Amino acid sequence: MAYDYAFVHLKFTIPLAGILTLISYPLLTRRHWYQTAILIAIAVVSTIPWDSYLIRHDVWTYPPDAIIGPTFWSIPAEELFFFVIQTYNTSLLYQLLNKPLLHAEYLLSPSWIAAGLHRVIQVVILDLALVGFLMVSNGGPGTYMGMILCWVCPFALLTWSLGGLFMITLPWTSTVIPIVLPTLYLWIVDEMALGRGTWAIESETKLGVTVWGSLEVEEAVFFLATNVLIVLGLGAIDNALAIADAFPDAFESAPECPSPTTLIQALLMPWSEERKGRIRGVQEAVERLCRKSRSFYLASSTFTGRLRIDLVLLYSYCRMADDLIDEPPEGLDTSAWIDRLTGHLDLVYKPRKDTTPTLQADMVRAYIDSEFPASARSALSLLPTSLLPPEPLYLLLEGFKTDSKFRPIEKGDYFPIANEDHLREYASQVAGTVGELCLSLISHHSSVRLDPAHIGQVAAAARRMGIALQFVNIARDIAVDAVLGRVYLPTTWLADEGLTPAQLVETITKEPASDKAQNVKQERLRIMEKLRRKLLGEAFAIYVESRPAMNWLPDESRRPMIVAVESYMEIGRVLLERNDPSFEVVMGRPSRATVPKPRRLKVALRALLEA
């Protein structure tokens, strides 16, 4: 009995697995572990017959003094463990790099080039399979390489055919890196093992070419090919999961761990123009979030499945409506767009009694197409209204009406946020409602229902937390809003400091003409910073009060929701850390406080660990 092969695991594969597990544990969900388990099972079952054949036919061997002893079908226990640990490590790396992505947005191939590349690679795989067959048939030095190709290519062709187009659309960092890094690592491990004689390839069956040192070209191809198979397998599963998540019309439910039958049905689902349109709408929603709210998009990656898609679609609707109010397309004022948004909700939630569901859907679609610009249509069409109560959406529009009441100075200025009560009412309408809507989606999609005894408290806390987040948003965007002629700081707060809303707008938007005016501006900026901190103090007080109720959320949604809240509250912390007023306007564009990406990731990780 010897331990050379076992030491390979103890020194190299197991420590790597431990590191990846520690990093992955707070980030990955049951779905990710389910995928990994599927891949490990497939890897073990598909590799055992092939590996056993090679050993029994003396293609490669293990010296008796290098292995512990127990075997299965002539395969040493250490080798069987290698099937598991390699698949595990590569799978975790792939999932970590894919975690930020919303896979549903990658379901449509971007161009004919991608389709052509997909077919070319299919042909290449078939050619390699033929080469492998010829090498095995001829025997001799090409036997081992031929056996690798004959074993790998059928699995590669199957998984590439099922998920290749999807994988082409993914960022290369989420597909190439999970192949390259594990392969390089295993090449180094294999080179040392071959050099030590832990395992050996019979000279009669190998080409005799080394990549470097003792690393035989066959071994290099083997580890590259197996990591490719793992990533292709995960890609095919992710493709199926994304389809099941994205299309409630085809899959009534999308469980966190769907059955293999469901995955196969998803991969074989026929595509219609309507379904392609839905994916284009999801793509537009993600693009809108990436432009308008990087913090929320990052936080959304901690959600999974259909819940994540619906949250993205909800937030996209809110941002779209906000854009129509803040920057109305030419020809209509903000009140007209609010009327049209209200008309859309009326059609959805107040249908005529004599209309069928199909006719109702056609009427809503026709209204959207005729009354809204193309950039807004997908956000309206894909809003998951069947899962959302109407009252918060109507209240959201009431908040937008407040936005429309602001009048610029040249038109007889009017600032509707007269006092703190008005501020809280406005924040409740535009953000407290969003918290309530998010809770509705969480309640629908969670496999564990919220305790009825806590529903009221959680709903109230969701609304209150929305107010806190809106206060942070207002505190950050004082300069942004001033450029639009809006001041959300209560007029009474400003009056207590000897300022008016009009003076605040003037301070932000106009350059001082003299030293005296510059001194006045600096004093006003100091006052504005003081009021910003006062508003942030209110925000954090509400946050502290509401935060404990989040612990009653189901586990699968509690941790992601805490990440979303903490990511946004971190903006407030960044503002409080600044020692000088920051209300710069450069080239007509006001600056906004942002949280650096490494810090956002740190906040998200801390929230996941503490939740």
TrEMBL record:
It comes from Cytospora schulzeri. Pfam families: Lycopene_cyc, SQS_PSY. Its EC number is 2.5.1.32, 5.5.1.19. Pathway: Carotenoid biosynthesis; beta-carotene biosynthesis; Carotenoid biosynthesis; phytoene biosynthesis; all-trans-phytoene from geranylgeranyl diphosphate: step 1/1. The lineage of its organism: Eukaryota, Fungi, Dikarya, Ascomycota, Pezizomycotina. It is a multi-pass membrane protein. One of its GO terms (biological process) is carotenoid biosynthetic process. It is found in: Membrane. This is Bifunctional lycopene cyclase/phytoene synthase. InterPro entries: Isoprenoid_synthase_dom_sf, Lycopene_cyclase_dom, Squ/phyt_synthse, Squalene/phytoene_synthase_CS, Trans_IPPS_bact-type, Trans_IPPS_HH. GO terms for cellular component: membrane. CDD domains: Trans_IPPS_HH (cd00683). The keyword Acyltransferase does not apply. Residues 16-96 form the Lycopene cyclase domain. Keywords: Carotenoid biosynthesis, Isomerase, Membrane, Multifunctional enzyme, Transferase, Transmembrane, Transmembrane helix. PROSITE patterns: SQUALEN_PHYTOEN_SYN_1 (PS01044), SQUALEN_PHYTOEN_SYN_2 (PS01045). The chain crosses the membrane at residues 6-25, 37-55, 112-136, 148-172. It comes from the Eukaryota. The keyword Transferase applies. It catalyses: gamma-carotene = all-trans-beta-carotene; all-trans-lycopene = gamma-carotene; 2 (2E,6E,10E)-geranylgeranyl diphosphate = 15-cis-phytoene + 2 diphosphate.
